């Protein structure tokens, strides 16, 4: 397990882009697992810059996002499909047909979640999965108590997550209470994983996930079981870590 402590969000974006881009050069076509939230935005900015400078080509890249709110149209400005278009897909030479986000409007969410799993399997799995972390230790929308072998499914959001995410909505009441998320088991099957964390509100989640016991109570701690995981953490989010980790 590798933990890289970086000075700020910009360095977090550069370091994580370096990891992913060097892996992308090894294999074509390539499958990326992507995350939403404010944390991966500096990474997406790096992707866009390097794409414009000709350092990376997205023409043969396929993507699978971790999660989506149940009930929001893809055109809703808080849907994760909308976020991905705005923060990455609209600015690089990716084919939108090759980008996948779980369907929060499916009539049969369970069947659509199973189909999402099958699609990932059919393309040979995810090469590199990008993750953020919730202040309660969630990954994707796998809230505390999610089975460590869970698959893509519909979940109920905790009050903690609804409160955290209400900053993006006009009113707390507007935050959806359910989501579809890849499972922890799904995430653990990715060949490589990078988890990004920044900000003082992630100190406790990072300390528990990186150095605490592996437990369903802290979903991100399951990554300790992954053979190829890198945590890229800004200094202000890393103040709870006690072991000697790499400084960028
Ligand atoms: C949401 C997403 C997570 C993300 C988390 C943290 O709950 N489902 O994938 O990691 O927010 O968001 P932020 O990066 O804005 O702190």
Describe what is shown at a glance.
This protein is α/β, with parallel strands linked by helices. It has 7 helices and 11 strands.
State the main characteristics.
248 residues, alpha/beta, Rossmann fold, eight-stranded parallel sheet, three-stranded antiparallel sheet, 11 strands, 19% strand, binds 2-amino-2-deoxy-6-O-phosphono-alpha-D-glucopyranose
How does this structure look, described?
- There is one protein chain.
- The chain is an alpha/beta fold and 248 residues long.
- It has one domain (2-247): 3-Layer(aba) Sandwich (Rossmann fold).
- It contains seven helices and eleven strands.
- It has helices at 9-24, 41-52, 80-87, 109-122, 159-165, 184-188, 203-211; strands at residues 2-6, 30-34, 61-65, 67-69, 99-100, 128-131, 153-156, 178-181, 192-197, 229-234, 246-247.
- The strands form two sheets. It has an eight-stranded parallel β-sheet, with helices on one face. It has a three-stranded antiparallel β-sheet with strand order 4-8-7.
- Strand 9 (192-197), helix 7 (203-211) and strand 10 (229-234) form a beta-alpha-beta unit.
- Helix 1 (9-24) packs across helix 2.
- The protein is globular, with a radius of gyration of 17 Å.
- 44% of the residues are buried.
- The model has no long low-confidence stretch (mean pLDDT 97).
- Bound molecules: 2-amino-2-deoxy-6-O-phosphono-alpha-D-glucopyranose.
- Residues 35-39, 66-67, 132-134, 140-141, 161, 165 line the site of 2-amino-2-deoxy-6-O-phosphono-alpha-D-glucopyranose.
